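Sorry to interrupt, but I need a hand with the structure work. Could you write out one complete protein record for me, on any chain you like? Could you add the entry underneath, on a fresh line?
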Amino acid sequence: MADSEGSPVSAPTTGQMDASGSFLTDKSYGAAIALIIAIVVPLVLSSMFAGKKKLKQRGVPVQVGGEAGLAMRNVRSEKLVDVPWEGATTMAALFEQSCKKHSQHRFLGTRKLIERSFVSGSDERKFEKLHLGEFQWETYGQVFERVSHFASGLIQLGHDPDTRIAIFSDTRAEWLIAFEGCFRQNITVVTIYASLGDDALVHSLNETKASTLICDSKLLKKVAAVSSSLKTVENVIYFESDNTEALTNIGDWKISSFLEVEKMGQETPVPVRLPIKKDVAVIMYTSGSTGLPKGVMMTHGNIVSTAAAVMTVIPNIGPNDVYMAYLPLAHIFELAAEVVMLTAGSSIGYGSALTLTDTSNKIKKGTMGDASMLKPTLMASVPAILDRVRDGVVKKVEEKGGLAKKLFNIAFQRRLLAVDGSWLGAWGLEKLLWDAIVFKKIRSVLGGDIRFMLCGGAPLAPDTQKFINVCVGAPIGQGYGLTETCAGAAFSEADDNSVGRVGPPLPCAYIKLVSWDEGGYLTSDKPMPRGEVVVGGYSVTAGYFNNEEKTNEVYKVDENGMRWFYTGDIGRFHPDGCLEIIDRKKDIVKLQHGEYISLGKVEAALASSKYVENVMLHADPFHTYCVALVVPARQVLEQWAQSAGISFNDFADLCGKKETVSEVQQSLAKAAKDAKLDKFETPAKIKLMADPWTPESGLVTAALKLKREQLKAKFKDDLLQLYA
């Protein structure tokens, strides 16, 4: 992905995340004394309180219908949860009731633009820099009025309530207002990623026969380029921005600004046309790892049940919480998170991946990023972002060196013992000391008040989870869900410090393991049952739009009428009822000598190398070894080259050098060994790719998952050379 001036970044990303190792200066004598005290005191305390932690049961077996397997439910609730409170059965009802309950409390916040400037890069390109002011807030009551006006305006505009509206935009407050406005007239919303390619955009709009398109003003050019291919669009509503361009040459459509539609509705209100629980609220087009995206049909009941379930997991969530919104709202993870926040009466502050921190790409030097200004208590993230946070911290610490590095390493190890529960004394006095000396500065990068983080979209590496837990000082709730389960499947709990797991089933769903004989994953396996993960319950969606064949392939209805979704993921249940995802059916390849290799498992292990920004493993049934395409972490690799005295013209030149390939390959081999991979699972040959893989290039999804088939097609010649 590139920003408006071509600055290369991945999306979603934090840009150049400042992990600030400036927690220590040379004036650290007092800190050293505190360090001695911090180490000695817990020695006594931990010996006094040491003992084996009792296993807390989080999931329990349950008898359910459908295919034979081992099913689990959340221990909190014998019956599945479908609503947060009585009467909130649809998104429209939930929103209206929450707005009335919290009418005076601040709801949606957006930063005001103070100044836009441009700076020249080393290659003479211009890069946009923003100076943003404080968040401007609207209350729940004010937002409800805007939603009601917008809903009436849609009808005044001529939109037929029996047709669909598509939202094609980056995340912002108006996105959510438009979304909720549609439900006041029982209009189904089609969500489309802002980074989706032209073919996928045309496919999504034509397949759903959307008659109204709501989009960013900056995306109008993209829409204009495909206007001749859009068969059903009649109205275009654009979100105003500070740099709205002239709106010309974009088809024979009626063009209106978002505020104009609101004003029309305010002047001429229309009676509401509210949905029922079974009505389809959203057709969400997945970014798709293969082919054209599929539209997942989510009912109002699906979305509400997921929100109700997550409300039981996040401790003490309520109006005092502030949520940082910056991930794509067209992705079920962010959408579900924001619905949870409005259910709880929390505040939502909108930012972007490129303005998130003080050192993000688009933030003017010396001004505050979104997190510093907002000081959120809750935040969602995807593993790729947390990996960058970790890498940023490590980089800063390495740059500091000396006593600062030693202090950080000692502090990290001591706090890690506390998080693991094996050093009880480290939670008291020592915790306060380490926070003051080391971690306070690091935590300030995300505002300093984070108390809980939600992570989803892809597996989170155990090392990253521990690192973030220690440095940010907040538990990470790692979730497991799919668009097809409306994000509602499993969620780890705040007091669970284990890593690599995704927690017990959410209270809105059952999770069943079904034996996969061909792959050798059986529910009878010891010490833990294994099998394909199948999700059943209120969060399981209605199927794929206009694709009955694919729907029937992966959705099943049991004898009791419950819907089940077959995920294709392989999992195992731990003794406490928590789920761990260990493989994926589509990612398993048999090599020439009969060994099975799991591409995803190996890629996750290789990603722990400091040189890896992204990696795709490739295995061929006609060979005895595997190979890999690696996108290196540019700054880390360039620093290595400088320290090794290797000269290079540009990054592509560096990636092509034998010494560079050898250095990265050695690092991958070590990562594979640390993960206890077999020799055949370690890539025998690698190719370094100088250009990052981004959603815009079509090589990864919006959640930064690999689009394996597209990567194989684009780099077909490179893969052939590796096998030559």
